[in-house]
Structures are given as structure tokens and as C-alpha cells.
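Possible regression after last week's pipeline update?

I re-ran a chain I had predicted before the update to compare outputs. Posting the input and the new output here so someone can diff against the archived version. Not blocking, just want to make sure nothing changed silently.
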Amino acid sequence: MRSLFLRIFLWFCGGCVLLALVIVAALLVTMPDVFSTGWRRVGRGAIVSAARAAAETYERAGPSALAAYVQELASDTDLHPQLFDSSGRDLNGSPSAEIANDLARLSSQPENKLVFFPPAGTAAVRIRGPSGSVYSFVTSVPPRDERIVWSPSLITSFVLFGCLLCYLLARSLTAPMVRLRALTSRFSEGDLATRVTEASLLNRKDEIGGLARDFNQMASRIETLMLGQRRLLADVSHELRSPLTRMGLALGLLRRNAGAEIQTSMTRMEREMERLNSLIQQLLTLSRLENATAPPRMEELELAQIVTEIVTDAAFEAQSMNCGVRLVECCPSVILGVRGLLHGAVENVIRNAVRYTKPETEVRVRLFRPEGVGQAVITVEDCGPGVPEAELAHMFEPFYRIGEARERESGGVGLGLAITQQVVNLHGGSVQAFNQAAGGLEVRIAIRLADAAV
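New output (post-update):
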């Protein structure tokens, strides 16, 4: 069960039910007849007193006085008693078979102890009269009219009210956590300016208030570090371009006057300078994407045309690496975007696949439009070694290397896929990587279509 709210709610409800069961059990133990016909309009002591009065009336004034007393008792209390002598003879009427059975059961009971016979709603007691004779007093006892106390409607109302109370209590505990989770989600998606601003959270004196204040401190610290890192990359990249440019000019002048014996070394120097220049250009591109204060101006583009151009160029270059690139499917897809950025993002993925696919294999590229999602999807599949599952989620982080030695050998520095992710995010899309069951890596780029853009 993953929902904290549901867990708290069910625990509270279970606690209420358990409490109700404990109360019922305690009542049954201490007052066994609390839920039965023991709740009477006439109490236990009144019935025993009426039995004594009936025996005294019979011995003092005879059957006629007993009959008058019984009639008066019936009109006052709605009791309809019968008095029997020790032999079971009815002193004021004719006993029925049920009464006879009750008398038989009553004979084993001690005197002055009121006994109930629930099936018939009857109460009985054995009484010793003034003369010492033993009598049996049997009467039907009407139940209370106020039995609504234990009615199903009242029990249902109690349960519903308890559930409502539990719901409100659980919601009051989890609602702040839901708001904090929404803020942390925004922060994790790149909105570094996200902060807890609600006074109802910040002013709390409990653990939730402490968590909200700690989150603000953590977010401020991370934002400072991230902005500092981005500013450092941008500043270093800008500062390096000028010296490299001057070194390139100086190297060109030197080549004119150099002898043949140092031409090879100079060629190597030029190649290394080109690599540095490419790295700086990638750093500047990544810095511009990360620090953009406003989205760039977008226009309608035919994504199929861009993909076709990239595949054509990549297929030509792949021939020198003894592999190929094939466009398996290409569905016309109009999107809103920046042509140069999208071209570079898709090209990074395809060139990366060409770099790592096995010789005499081909990289397969598809562009299609799944029904009902309003997106164009580009998939790039290679036949390379794939990527360890634990590292798939880190592939698009700047400077992250999938296997240090392999990346250095290929010349990669871990910026191409990071730039791709920034560009795709800028276009309201997503990029993911998967290992294929048959081997190799699949990179999937999803970009929102123009008619689905909001």
C-alpha cells in the first residue's frame, strides 16, 4: 500500500472499529443482558418487590384480593403476572404449557433471584411469603420503547461519522505532504527557484514545518551550486576561445615557414586544437540552453526532412567505419521548433549510435506518429554492446561517461547526449534510452506535434 493517506485513513478506521468491539465486549461481560430484553420498562428490583407484594396479598386477603392486585399491577406497569404455590397450582388463573415449563426451570433457582426466559420474554422469581410458604411469581415483561439506542440506523450513523472524522484527520496530516511533494517534483524537474512560500507550512512547529524550512535551505544551496557551475562553464568556455583562436592563427603562420620534418607534429597540434574547439562549442551550447531566460523563437518544421538529411549524411560517413545507417520508417510530422537545435540534437544521437554499433551492422532509424498521443517519435537502434542498466538513467547528464576507457578512446566527453536532452526538453518532448532484448541500445526521442502544441 503506497498511499500514506490511505494507510493513515485505514488505520484510524480500524482503530475506531476495534474500540467499538472492545466496548461491546466489555458490556457483554459486565452486563450480559444489555443487548437483550433485560432493558425493561420495569426494573429487576420492582419485579421482585411486586412478587413479594403478591404473596403477602394472597396470604392476607385471599384470591380475590390477589386478582385485584394483579389487575392494578397490569394497568400501572403493563406486567401480567401469575402466582403459583409450591405444587404449581395457579392462584389467579390457569397456567399454559409454556408457564409450566418455566416453573420447572425455576424450581432449581434460589429464592429472590430474578430469572429471565428470553425466548418468551418472561421473568420469574421464587418468593417466600410471610407464612413461610414458597411461591413462584411469573410475568411477561414488556421491552423498553426506547430501543432506538441500539437501532441499525444509529449504528450506521456512528460508523459513517467515525469514517468522516478519520478522513478529515488523515487528510489534515497528509495534505501538507502532498504540497511538499509537488514542490520537490518541480525542483527535481529543473525549476531551481522552487521554494515553500505558504505560511501555513513554514510556521508549523512540528516535523512538517521543519521539513518545509529544511527544503528551502537545501533548494537555495543547490541553486547556488548549480548556477555557479553553469556560470563557471560558460566563463571558462568564453575565455578559452580567444587563446585557441590566436594559437590557430600562429600555427598557420608557423606552418608556412616550417620545414617538412615538423609538418607531422603541426598536423597533430591542429587536430588537437580542433577537438578543443569542438569541446568549447559544445560547452557554450549547453550553457546557452541551461541559462536561457526565454524560449527561442520557434517555427513550423517538417521533422521528416530533418531526419532524412541527417541519415543521409550519417550513412555516407558510416561507410568509412564499415557499417551503415538505414531509415526504416519516416512519417511526415510537422512540429514547432528551432531547426539548428533539433538538427544537432538528433544528429548527436545518430552519430553516437554509428560510433558504437558493431562492424558490418547498421543503425536503424524510425520516425513515426503513435495514435492518440500528439507526438512524433524518433527511435535510433544500434547493434552495439548496450549500456549497463544502472547507468541508463545517467546517460544524459553532462560529462557522464559510460565506461571511462571506451569514451576516451572514442573521443567523447559526455556532452552530446546532455545537449540532446536540453534541446528536446526545450521543445516540450522527452528522450529515453533502453537496452534491446536482442542486444544494442535504443534511444527514443518524442517531440510534440505542431497541432498538439499548447
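Follow-up from reviewer: compared with the archived run. The CA atoms of residues 180 and 211 lie 9 Å apart. Marking as no regression found.
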